[in-house]
Amino acid sequence: MNKLRTRLTNSDVLFSVFFLPLTSQDIHAYIDSGTVSLAIQILIASFVGGLFLLKVFWGKVKAFFSNLLSKTRRKNG
Q1: How far is CA 11 from CA 7, 19, 21, 66, 67, in A?
Q2: CB count, 10 Å around CB of 37?
């Protein structure tokens, strides 16, 4: 027996993200200042966390290449 399966395709996702908001009606609501504050905190924390990750990652990449070059110099020199 074949089972009926529901499958979400890329076109379904694109339709729901881009076209459904255009057809929606007005919603009478507001964004609380606490929500805005939380969103700003998330953005700032993401930015600072990304900078920290870049700093840590850059140090490891730099150390890897400096070790690789020093091993090459020892073999040749």
Answers
A1: 11, 11, 15, 47, 48
A2: 10
Q: Is 26 part of any domain?
A: no
Which DSSP state fits 35?
A: H
Q: Structural domain tally of the chain?
A: 1
- Residue 69 domain-assigned (yes or no): yes
Mean pLDDT by groups of 10 residues along the chain of 77 residues: 59 76 74 89 96 88 86 71
> What local confidence, expressed as pLDDT, does residue 1 receive?
46
Establish if 63 belongs to a structural domain: yes
The answer to whether position 27 is within a domain reads no
Q: Which helix (H) or strand (E) holds 61?
A: helix 33-76
pTM reported for the whole predicted model: 0.45
